[in-house]
Amino acid sequence: MARGKGVGSVDDKISLEDIMQGRVTTEQVAKLSFEEALTLLEGVVAAVESGSLPLDQAIGSYERGTHLVQHLRALLSGAEEKLRVLGEE
Fold first, then answer.
1. I want to staple 16 with a disulfide (CB 3.0 to 4.6 A). Which of 28, 32, 43, 50 is the partner?
2. In angstroms, what CA-CA distances link 54 with 18, 21, 65, 75, 89?
3. What is the pTM (predicted TM-score) of this model?
4. Which top CATH class is 16-88?
């Protein structure tokens, strides 16, 4: 699981705890690399699927996970477009 120093730290890495606690903005998610976002999403999914979270925290985590999914889809779409353009050249 991704474990950075936390939002607002010197390296500004987003940790799974930051995501789970809702301490991350959409703008911060938009700055994540594909690999970082995927690792965080895997952590969120594992936490929600574990059944150990209270319902309200599970719902919030699910919602934040959807933001990660949207970001991942945007990154994939951009990569597909680049490949399409390269294939036309």
1. 43
2. 17, 13, 16, 31, 53
3. 0.80
4. mainly alpha
List the chain domain ranges.
16-88
Tokens 């574990």 belong to which residue? 50
Residue 41 neighbours by CB distance under 10 Å: 22
39, 42, 68, 86 from 35: Cα distances, Å:
6, 11, 11, 23
Give the C-alpha separation, 2 to 53, whole Å.
Answer: 19
For 1-53, what is each residue's pLDDT tens digit? 444 444 443 357 899 999 999 999 999 999 999 999 999 999 999 999 999 99
